Amino acid sequence: MLSIIISWRDRLELKRALPTFIETAALLDGEINIVNFSGSDELLNDLIGENRTRVKVTKVDNQHYFNKAAAQNVGASTALHPVLFFCDCDIILEPAQLVELYHRVAGGDRVFATLAGVSETEINSRGAGHVVSFGYELNIRTADGRTLKIVDNEEDSENGTRQAPGLLMVKKQDFIAINGYNSQLHGWGWEDQDMISRLTLGLGLERIISGEALHISHDDHARLAFYPEVASRWESRDRMFRTALANYDNNDFAGSYSADIADCSVS
């Protein structure tokens, strides 16, 4: 009983990824919820094609920019099942691994999960030169004794692998308890890690890290096209991280789910 939530705005990769979403949903008696965040209805219908009866589409109107966090929150509000899986539209899933992960989350106590990593469909898609791999480790400890560790890295140009913090599975009741994603972190690069941080530090849940998938490789234009303009994706990510860290320092771990549901015009 899984709701797969896909946030979308004019991304062609959906057509290639969709069959694996459908297979995964079928194995778990689940559903696929696509949130069209002010993208082209015609393009989305073309990409879905003959699978239209297998997916539920929610349209968010009148949004100048794409806001992934707000889109995820809208998708969660339409979900019928007790476990949610948030997946990007450019991910090719391994359905059997998602089934295993579902049972660990659904049957677990105070847990959520992310996939362990993805492999690029095109090795060295980021165009690395001499530096073949780089990453970071984030450690936070709060006054109430809760701790957070996030390890992340950009694509290893020799094998095409990287972490997958945005491929998140969580019980809907826990998602609602933390008030969903935080759409005030608007841009590319930290809303996924922020959700991990808030579920861990705010709710005290334990993160399961398991499973692999493929990421359909693309350039930064596809990645950033519908976000507010920035000089680079790193500028956006740094700003979002600093905002999130200030929230944590204020003991503020709430998202914007309720506000986004009230503010977004859907059809």
TrEMBL record:
Keyword Transferase attributed: yes
Pfam family membership, one: Glyco_transf_7C
Signal peptide interval: none
Domain of life: Bacteria
Protein name (database record): Glycosyl transferase family 2
Keywords linked to the UniProt accession: Transferase
Domain Galactosyltransferase C-terminal: 165-218
Molecular function via GO: transferase activity
